[in-house]
Amino acid sequence: MENEEMKMEETPSAAAVEYTPPPTMTMEEMQRQQEQAELRQNMLKGALASLVVGLVCAVLWAFITALTQHQIGYMAWGVGFAVGATMKAAGKGLSPAYGVVAAVIALFSCGIGNFLSYIAFLAAEFEMDFGEVLTGFDYSYTFGLMKDMFHPMDAVFWLNTQKGW
After folding, report:
1. pLDDT per residue rounded down to tens, the chain (165 residues)
2. DSSP code string of 29-90
3. Are 122 and 66 in contact (CB under 8 A)?
4. Pairing with 54, which of 12, 90, 108, 137 sits 20 to 30 Å away (CA)?
């Protein structure tokens, strides 16, 4: 009982706590912070990092698709989020151009993921090694293969990849 009384005595009452308003910034301080943020921007670093993440996502996309024997459209959203988040973290961009570049990289990554999935399906169909099919594939047929394997829902998911940004 004595301990409870001591705890209550140590705790300040609501009336005893003073309100401290948050610090305010002057216009010059805000401009200085804006200038510093603009100096930290790096489109090349953001684009390269996003491209690496996009390619990793494409390989994961193909692996998951080959493993499940189903193309899971929601993976495009994951690719868009991963690429966009990487662009934001690595590029530190403030302008919409960073989002546009991230969206293009995400679309490219989704296309690569689909293509690698098709290669995996071909390898399984002909009971060949994935690497063997990848290196032996006649790349003049790439766009024809992509066109033949395209489904309208692909466009829905691919075009939503920018939501990650």
Report:
1. 555 555 555 555 555 678 887 778 888 988 898 888 888 999 999 999 999 999 999 999 999 998 998 888 788 889 999 999 999 999 998 899 999 999 999 989 988 998 999 899 889 999 999 999 999 989 898 888 887 777 777 666 666 655 544
2. HHHHHHHHHHHH--HHHHHHHHHHHHHHHHHHHHHHHHHHTS--TTHHHHHHHHHHHHIIII
3. no
4. 137
* Tally of residues, the chain: 165
Please name the residues in contact with 108: beta carbons below 8 A apart, sequence gap of 6 or more. Answer: 54
Contact 113, 61 (CB under 8 A): yes
The type of residue at 2 is: E
* Contacts with 145 (C-beta within 8 Å, 6 or more apart), sequence order: 115, 118
CA pair distance 95, 72, nearest whole angstrom: 32
Task: Using alpha carbons, list the distances in angstroms from residue 47 to 40, 84, 85, 87, 93.
Answer: 14, 10, 11, 6, 11
pTM (2 d.p.): 0.73
